[in-house]
Amino acid sequence: MRRAKDMLGLPVIDVRTGKQLGSVKDLWIDSEWQVQAILLDNKSWFSSPRFILWEDINSFGEDAVTVTDEAVIRSEEDITGAWVLLTGSGQIMGLPLLTVNGQQLGRVEDVYFSQNMDKRIIGFELSEGFLADVKDGRKWLPAPEQATMGQDVIMVPVSCKDSLEDILYEE
Fold first, then answer.
1. In what residue span(s) does the PRC-barrel domain sit (predicted)?
2. Which of 29, 80, 126, 151 could form a disulfide with 106 if both were Cys (CB 3.0 to 4.6 A apart)?
3. Domain 2-84: assigned CATH number
4. In this structure, are residues 16 and 2 in contact, taking their beta carbons and an 8 Å threshold?
5. Do 2-84 and 96-165 agree at the fold level?
6. What pLDDT score was predicted for residue 105?
């Protein structure tokens, strides 16, 4: 599995020229829990956001993201209904995951993708706060079939409580 936080900061490289086009600042996710694009860091304070659609990415390696050429960078296109992970309004990180019967399972600290980097999120890393993280560790929740991104919480079925697993970090 690959964590979203491990992707942030990776350089984006044009494979034809070897030029670094920027670095991954964030991921844009739609309401179906699929990544639609990567957001690049801005070259200046006043420049508009630059992004690359997921379909335009050659590879998402451990050390870099590669694209066919610089022409895949978009700056004015709007992705409707998309959410971001760490920055801006509608962020997912830090939102509480709440079951429909009102039980909070934790706050989203990270999201996971399959090793082959499908665009669908396959799970959430949840925290119940610093002390609970130190004492009991964080939890992993496989992405449920039905999850609703709200403005203030992410709603999941009651059955998700039984699906929580301890995270075992690989050294």
1. 2-68, 92-158
2. 126
3. 2.30.30.240
4. no
5. yes
6. 96
CA distance 53 to 38: 7
pLDDT at 171: 47
What's the pTM value of the predicted model, to 2 decimals?
Answer: 0.83
Q: Which residues contact 69 (CB under 8 A, 6 or more apart)?
A: 14, 15, 16, 17
The CA distances from residue 18 to 14, 65, 71, 162, in Å, are: 5, 12, 14, 47
Percent of the chain past pLDDT 70, that is, above it, reads 91
CA distances to 20, 24, 134 from 85, rounded to whole Å, are 23, 12, 24
Domain range list for the chain? 2-84, 96-165
- Tens-digit pLDDT profile for residues 114-131: 877 788 899 999 999 888
Residues 6+ apart with CB under 8 A from 126: 97, 105, 106, 107, 108, 109, 138, 139, 140, 141, 164
State pLDDT tens for residues 34-71: 888 999 987 777 777 889 999 999 998 889 999 999 99
Fold of 96-165: SH3 type barrels. (2.30.30)
Whether the per-residue pLDDT at 94 is higher than 50: the answer is yes
